Automatic annotation (TrEMBL):
GO-annotated molecular function: manganese ion transmembrane transporter activity
Protein's name in the database: VIT1/CCC1 transporter family protein
Entry annotated with the keyword RNA-binding: no
Signal peptide interval: none
Keyword presence, Membrane: yes
Entry's Gene Ontology cellular component terms: endomembrane system
Residue ranges crossing the lipid bilayer per the database entry: 164-187, 193-214, 226-244
Native organism: Candidatus Sulfurimonas marisnigri
Intracellular or extracellular location(s): Endomembrane system
Length: 253
C-alpha cells in the first residue's frame, strides 16, 4: 500500500468519517431506481426502433411507436415500483406490530430468540448476557433487532413516491435518447438508425458505468456488460422485425 492510499485509508476510518458513512447507509438511495429505469427505458425504446427498422417501417412509425411506448411503459414501471415499495413497507409494518405484540405477551420466548440469534453470531457467556440485557431493556431496539435479524428487513425506508418519480424520469430520459435522430427529417432512415444506435450504445455504456457505483464493480466491465445486454435485445428485435417482414410481407418501406 503506497503512502497516499494509506493516508486515505486512515482518513476514512476516523471516528467522524465512520459516523458519516454509517449515516449515509441509513439514508434511502435512489440510484438503483435511476439505473433500473434508465436501462429498461433505453432497452425498450431502442428495441422498438430496431424492430420497426428491421420490419421496414418508415421512420414516422418507429417514432410514434417509440414515444407511445416510452410514456406508457415509463408510467407503468413507475407505478409498479411505487406499489412494490409500498407492499414491502406494509409487510415490514405488519411484522413490527406482530413482534411488538409477541414481546408483550411472550417476553421470555422472545428473549430466548434474541439469545439464539446472538449465539449463532458467536457470542457467549457474560458478553452474550450483556447483549441480551441491553437489547431487551429497550423495547424499540428489541423489536427492530427482531425484524432485522429474524426477517432480514432493513431499517432503511425508501420513499415510494420519490422512487417512482426517479424511475419515471430516468426511463423517459434514457429511453428518449434513441428516438432523437428520428426527429430529424433531413436524415435518411438508415442515417437515423445509425445515429440512434450510436446514441443508444453511449447510453447503455454510461448507465452501466453508473451501475458500477451501486454494486462496486469495475466501471469499464460494468459498462460493457450493459452495452452487450442492450445490444443483444435490440439485435433480437431487429431480427424479429426483419423475419416477419420477409415472411409475411410486413413493412412500409
Amino acid at each position: 500500500m503506497n503512502q497516499n492510499n494509506y493516508s486515505e485509508h486512515i482518513r476514512e476510518h476516523q471516528i467522524e468519517a465512520i459516523k458519516r458513512r454509517l449515516e449515509n447507509f441509513k439514508t434511502p438511495q435512489n440510484i438503483s431506481d435511476a439505473v433500473l429505469g434508465s436501462i429498461d427505458g433505453c432497452v425498450t425504446t431502442f428495441a422498438i426502433v430496431s424492430g420497426a427498422v428491421g420490419a421496414g417501417f418508415p421512420s414516422s412509425v418507429a417514432l410514434v411507436l417509440g414515444f407511445a411506448n416510452l410514456f406508457a411503459d415509463g408510467f407503468s414501471m413507475a407505478v409498479s415500483n411505487y406499489e412494490s415499495i409500498n407492499a414491502q413497507q406494509e409487510f415490514a409494518d405488519g411484522v413490527r406490530r406482530t413482534e411488538d405484540e409477541h414481546i408483550n405477551k411472550y417476553p421470555i420466548g422472545e428473549r430466548e430468540e434474541i439469545k439464539q440469534i446472538f449465539l449463532e453470531k458467536g457470542f457467549k457467556g457474560e458478553v452474550l448476557d450483556e447483549i441480551i440485557d441491553t437489547i431487551c431493556k429497550d423495547k424499540g431496539l428489541w423489536v427492530e433487532t427482531m425484524i432485522t435479524e429474524e426477517y432480514g428487513i432493513q431499517k432503511t425506508k425508501a420513499n415510494p413516491l420519490k422512487s417512482a418519480i426517479t424511475t419515471f424520469l430516468s426511463f423517459i430520459f434514457a429511453g428518449g435518447i434513441p428516438l432523437m435522430p428520428f426527429l430529424i427529417p433531413q436524415l435518411e432512415m438508415k442515417e437515423q438508425f445509425m445515429l440512434s444506435t450510436f446514441l443508444a450504445g453511449i447510453m447503455f455504456f454510461t448507465v452501466g458505468m453508473l451501475k458500477s457505483f451501486l454494486f462496486s464493480k469495475p466501471m469499464f466491465i460494468s459498462g460493457m456488460r450493459t452495452l452487450l445486454t442492450g445490444g443483444t435485445a435490440a439485435g433480437l428485435a431487429f431480427l424479429t422485425g426483419y423475419i416477419l417482414q420477409e415472411t409475411f410481407g410486413i413493412g412500409g418501406m
